[in-house]
Amino acid sequence: MKDLNLLFTFEALWRDHSVSVAAENLGVTQGAVSGSLKRMRQEYGDRLFTMVGRRMEPTPFAGQIAPGLLEALDLVREAQSHTLEFTPRHCRKTFTLRTRDIGEAVCLPAILKALHHQAPASRLQTVASTVEETLSGLSTGRIDLAIGYLPMLKTDIHRTCVSSQHYVCVMREGHPLADSEMTLSRFLSQQHLLVETGGTGHVALERALVEEGARSNISVRIPQYLSAPHLLLASDMLWAAPQVLASTLAQFFALRLKPLPLTLPAFDIALYWHDRFHRDPQSRWFRDLVAQALRESLEQPATLTSTLGKQIENQLS
Fold first, then answer.
1. Coil, strand, or helix at residue 121?
2. Closest-CA residue to 147 (of 170, 167, 165)
3. Mean pLDDT throughout 237-245?
4. Which of 7, 132, 175, 193 has its CA 20 to 30 A from that of 54?
5. How many CB atoms lie within 10 A of CB 218?
6. What percent of the chain has pLDDT over 70?
7. What is the largest CA-CA distance in the chain?
8. What is the CB-side half-sphere exposure of residue 60 using CA atoms within 13 A?
């Protein structure tokens, strides 16, 4: 290909299987993508991509030339990254993090503090994308980093763990079981609040409740974490929550934390990024900053407000 921009269009169509999605990810119009595809068809004498149902699928010829073209584009990017100089103090970029409200509450303050110290002209924004949208966003650069427990993010994805976490049982102060040992039978007999977290690894929590026969005791299902303490304060429900989030919320709400009697494995809070940006100087600097900020902040447990909360913190440390 004589025009390097055609390589980017080929890559986007190969990855996204859609003219409209490719145009969005490239930051151009659909007409521009269609025009580039027309030029590529003329250059190669092949249709390259055709509609199959609702997807643009590569022709056999496109499949033959794709490895060489995509490798060439990666070499171009790598060469460019070696010539780029990145100075955080001069950075005016808006960095985009994929995280949910739990990440905004627990992780964002430390990240924001570190970012403003090193790159005061930069900005932050968050998105709560699906796994498919996250993978696409990471691959195109629309998302710089994903934060959370996302073991299904695998294709061309790098990850680094910043904290290992576990679940605890959360209830309001004054709950009938607040001063009792939380046995499995007592836990299962109560009504439960469940945060449904499709697209993350936290589905193991609901699976454990169902397997223990507590499906009918799930009273309320909500899609986000930060409304949970308000619901607990107005009821006798129990909530199995990540310890780092529960400790954070207990600083502001009258909550009790107890060991969770369910057997659940620990899980990692990790950073995820795409291989395309693995060597990019700006991306490398940003993920190193985020990783260091989170490791330092998550290693220092939040001060719990209740005496029992402090006791349970010691038990679980």
1. coil
2. 165
3. 94
4. 7
5. 16
6. 91
7. 77
8. 0
Would you give the distance in Å from CA 211 to the centre of its chain? 27
Which pLDDT score, from 0 to 100, does residue 75 have?
A: 81
pLDDT per position as a tens digit, 110-138: 999 999 999 999 999 999 888 888 998 99
Sign of the torsion formed by the C-alpha atoms of 109, 113, 115 and 119: positive
At 102-115, the pLDDT tens digits run: 999 999 999 999 99
**CA nearest neighbour of 254 among 186, 198, 305:** 305
DSSP 275: G
pLDDT tens across 82-94, in order?
555 678 988 889 9
Residue type, 7: L
Q: Are 166 and 268 in contact (CB under 8 A)?
A: no
Instruction: Supply 212's token pair.
Output: 């223990």
Total length of the chain = 317
> Whole-prediction pTM value?
0.71
Contact 55, 18 (CB under 8 A): yes
- Neighbouring residues of 23: CB distance < 8 A, sequence distance ≥ 6: 12, 29, 30, 32, 33
- List the domains of the chain with CATH numbers: 4-83 (1.10.10.10), 91-163+273-298 (3.40.190.10), 165-267+303-316 (3.40.190.10)
